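Many introductory courses stop at the sequence. We go one step further.
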Amino acid sequence: MKGEKENVQQNKQQFSFIHTADLHLDSPFLGISDVDSELGECLSKSTFQTYDSIIEQCIERKVDFLLIAGDVYDSADKSLYAQIKFLDGLKRLSDYGVSVYICHGNHDPLNGWSARLKWPDNVHVMRGDTVDCIDFKKEDEIVARILGISYPVPHIESNLVKKFPVKMAEWPFTIGLLHCTVGSSDGHYPYSPCTVEDLRCSNYDYWALGHIHAPSQISTSDPVIIYSGTPQGRHPGECGAHGCFYVSVDSKERVSVEFVETDSIRWYVQEISIDEINTEGELLECMQDTIDEIREKVDGRSVICRFVLKGRSPLHTSLKEEDILSNFLQVLRDTEFSNSSFIWVDRIEDYTRLPVDRETLLKRKDFVGDVVNIVESHYENDNTFKDLRRTFENLFKSSIGKNLLSNIDKEELPDIIQRAENILLDYLLTEEKHAD
């Protein structure tokens, strides 16, 4: 029997697929379009360009199928334009014999509006009332089994993994397709929350997940668990390379994974220290040099960059002057759209500080010393984050606040506290200097 099993394994067909999710086609990129219409137009096209890149990857690599793990569109009321562009890509894959398996997520649930369009026969959309199970055949042999479920409505708070059947011994290579939150939410609302152990208990070989926008390999074996991330970053919180995963499975069901960059516009948040910078001219030159360095890293892509100024220098006082930062922005933006690929600086954030010795301020026995010591106590207090969230809880939960504000991340807290201290010290020490 053992020999027979090995024989079967050796005869299994090799296959490959691409795993993507969170396309968010027709994302509006609110805010930036109001600043510059030309940039807004480039951004509005970027999600479609990225989708086209994924289709091209499928064709060039001659994959057997494409997996899309939810949030094809940016909203339940997806535009007709986005649906037609999506369909165009599926038709191209159909021409090349590439199957497509789709589950819908919280942004594009099944109960949202859809135009009456005819999908090609190569497309399989997972149902929302139960887990679909579809066999993929290659040369008349079943080489993979894909199981998935779509969101029937936007808000799914139950653990959908519990609905997936456990893989049986006689099953072929088995893939789970799901939009969900594994473990902590990391800034994402915990739709269909589950654990790594939940996924492992299914005995599947590969979990193709969507919802978390940062690409990540949660597990590299037994099973392989991957968030493909959004293939096109959409704001400064989605910095760095974005793309999809190319996966190949050999005749012994060994999995090889490759991350493929597909983003047409990349986001950067770049810190610049002013510790050794004393004049406006030096700072402008430093920012221009930084732009040139970024351009060398991105392989011809366009970039939207945010500069974060930090450190201590006499220049700090000048940066507080009205229009200084906006003038820097205007100079940095002036020539960028003359290039086929651009680096657009969307904001310069000033976190610089006065050139004072904080240790000396901590020892002062006056109001300034009290302020710095209070701030220092918050840095060292584990309850500060809880207290801060409790203080602003009603603001974040209000009907307006929950649509406009994102919850404070624990990692953001030191920056928030430091900025509050900077504002206070700027005022107090400036007043003190004038009094002298």
